[in-house]
Amino acid sequence: xxxxxxxxxxxxxxxxxxxxxxxxxxxxxxxxxxxxxxxxxxxxxxxxxxxxxxxxxxxxxxxxxxxxxxxxxxxxxxxxxxxxxxxxxxxxxxxxxxxxxxxxxxxxxxxxxxxxxxxxxxxxxxxxxxxxxxxxxxxxxxx
Length: 143
Known about the structure:
There is one protein chain. The protein is mainly α. The chain is built from four helices and three strands, in the order αααβββα. The protein has helices at residues 11-38, 50-63, 69-89, 120-137; strands at residues 91-95, 105-109, 115-119. Strands 1-2-3 form a three-stranded antiparallel sheet. Helix 1 (11-38) runs parallel beside helix 4 (120-137) and helix 2 packs antiparallel against helix 3. The longest helix has 28 residues, at 11-38.
């Protein structure tokens, strides 16, 4: 993503991509909130984070379901949440030299202390994946 002056992404470009992840995450949580409210579980929202309450609800629904389809949705949410949480809670450093290719990278520390290097392309892909997961949740039909 060049702004016409620099040949490679800048720190501003990298920050923008991190922001995109956070925005799409908010949209995903709004969908989770909608599903909880639709199930009449608004009260759960006061007792913890949206994702925690949604996981518990979907886990209960999946346990009582004869099909394993909900497990796919839970798995997709867990996958994107791991990377999103690194960006939301574990940023250790960010670098972006617009004169050096492949330098736009975020280094995050995970809950276990492990280090993760996330290039700008990975972060951009994460925003797209979070949006894909959100759209897929819209197709869940709970009976």
